[in-house]
Amino acid sequence: MSADAYATLCEQYEHVSNIQHARGVLSWDQQVTMPEDGTPARTAQLSALSTVAHDALTNDIIADTLETLRANSDSLSSDQKATVREIRRKHERATAVPESLIAEMSETASEALPVWESAKADDDFDAFAPYLQRHVELNREYADCIDSTRDPYAVLLEEFEPYLSLDHVESVLRTIRETLVPLIDEIRASETTLATDAFTTQGTYSSANQEALCRDVLTTLGYPWERGRLDTAPHPFSMGTSFDARVTTRFDETDPLGSVFSTIHEFGHASYTLGLSDDAYATPLGEDRDLSVHESQSRLWENHVGRSRAFWDVLLSQMNEHFPQTDSLSVREAYEAANQVYEDNLIRVNADELTYHLHVLIRYEIERALIDGDIDVAEVPAIWNNKYEEYLGIQPETDAEGCLQDIHWSHGNIGYFPTYSLGSAMAAQLYTAAEESIADLDGKIAAGSFDELREWLRRNVHQHGARYQTDELIKQATGSSFTADAFVSYVSKKYASLYSLDQEFHTPL
Q1: Is the pLDDT of residue 505 over 70?
Q2: Buried b vs exposed e over 310-348: b needs ≥16 C-beta within 10 Å?
Q3: Would the pTM of this model clear 0.90, i.e. be above it?
Q4: Would you name the residues annotated as active-site residues?
């Protein structure tokens, strides 16, 4: 009985998964190649697929098989129990939400995307505000459907990180904030001068050559082109499956570092997706363990590899081939430029490794206040600007470089932003474990050899899919539960060295 029920459950879930993957491809197309006037049809298509997927996930067959398996759970293997756990969680959340609400959330997101793009281009927050307001209302309604007795933001966070409690999340964010604020202050007070303008004073960098460089970097890191592609998008992202994981980037002809690090970041996401088991495709064991872990992979490759001194032995020589004006730069100068701590950067995706998290905290605090009803959407630009002044000592002159800069709220993704900082903390913990396991990892990176690191991540993180809950996965990979301790140690050591600081001041308690 349980074997038949389990087979039926997997067959039903495979149908759901394939619908969702098809929806992902349409979403990718909307952001990358769709004609400008294609929005009305795409809105209807995405809404239809959302409705079909919701119907399939909440149907009586899945409900009945889950009940059968609940009564016969002792006969299931550990992998089967994990599969049932994940499908049950998704089924129960979906069942709690009316189909009409799912359709409206999808329609609003599809309609909001082009409005956000034009509002950002025109510096017109008022044009986007009604869509943000509707997203806030729909997200509140969504959270209320799932559990009206709980903090609605905690319920929304679970869409992106279901197995770390809000208390755990806030504890990690608090540790990061309490570490970075004094560290950044000390860096800014430091008399050490880095080669911050190493690239920005070398003329312009054509988009075509930047794309060629990014393709070379992806090849060096081990991106399998037969299962991926590189395109451009207003906001870089990655999407796909273990068979097809695509990355995007964008170009600024005054500075090539933005496109290089965006590309490496998205490579980390794609590497995780491609490292999932082909055999488990369209099952929870062939799906990622949610966004905190996903972000750990992108931040690990972007920061621990891409911004490392060792990697610049490889990257600078590649850069020289595409941009001869960089021939005069030393590896040390390039490394310093890539790791400077900015005093005046307003854009999150262009932020340095430390102030990046203050950008994230600002978004987290604003979206939580919106969901809690503590602020109105109309207040967002002013509150955003005030928080930038308080946290970073700067204020945007326009909403385009302020509260309109990120794509996430146009998608209605509220609860997403904390996963960026959670992922960075996980990346440090995972990379520390990888360093302990792989002999002379720095030397291998400097030689352009990434096979062992990719294999370590595949074996310890990727191949498990959603088999383990978040903390269990990190403990399996590193031997310890998830904390921010490794991140604190990593940034303290690295930036004390870069800026000649008193390292004892930054040693974690």
Answers
A1: no
A2: bbbbbbbebbeebbeebeebebebbbbbbbbbbeebbeb
A3: yes
A4: 266
